[in-house]
Amino acid sequence: MMHKKDNLYLITIMIFAIIIMAVIDSYIQPGYLMKSIFKIFLFLIVPILYSMKNNNLSLAKLFHINSKNQIINSLILGLGVYGIIIGAYFILKNFIDLNNIQNILLDSLKVSKKNFIYVAIYISFINSLLEEFFFRGFVFLNLNKTMTRIKAYGISAFAFAIYHLAILSNWFNPILFMISMLGLFVGGLIFNWLNERNENLYNSWLVHMFANFAINTIGLMIYNII
């Protein structure tokens, strides 16, 4: 059983991982491959190592499917999220500097038209799983055992939004940037809610995956691949 003292270690690991990734995104900018390796270590390996030393924390059950209905419902919700994001893009695209986004992706992550499809596949399936494992599985579902729901929800969703701050800070104008950060926070709350009942990752992972499908569809259009 989780104890309150475990929260301090868990939150410290969370803050440490977010700060390191912010430094990597903002200053080191090693390219997407190396960034992904760092992220796998911080968001997957470190939590696993910590869980091996802390008997109060279990991560294996995060991958246990409790009901087929949860998968079906999440797929339906994911399709809805896909449609909302694509619709929002067409409504707001005249306010987005698409060339700036391409330049940022090339300069900071070495992502271009040539390798975008490979990056998109990784983002959709692997990166979404890493983030759900870390922010929902490792952080939220464990904090939710020893904290009030409001605190557990707030800490995880806020961390999820702040993690993306360094990534998105130069992408949009200030208004769209704030809307994006608010959307990430609300999205984090929704992901927490999806996972809370079944205490596994599949609900939020599927929805997150479809959100990334939408973002990558927009990327394919930006690069004139489709």
In short:
Helices cover 79% and strands 0% of the residues.
Number of helices: 9
Task: State the share of residues found in helices, binned by percent.
Answer: over 70%
- Shape descriptor: globular
Mean pLDDT: 90
Give the quaternary arrangement of the chains. single chain
Query: What would you report as the Rg, rounded to the nearest angstrom?
Result: 17 Å
Helix/sheet category: mainly alpha
Describe this structure in words.
The structure is a single chain. With 226 residues, the chain is mainly α. Helix content is 79%, strand content 0%. It is built from nine helices and no strands. The protein has helices spanning 4-28, 32-53, 68-92, 98-109, 116-146, 149-163, 165-168, 174-196, 202-222. Helix 5 (116-146) crosses helix 8, helix 5 packs antiparallel against helix 9 and helix 6 packs across helix 8 (174-196). The model has no long low-confidence stretch (mean pLDDT 90).
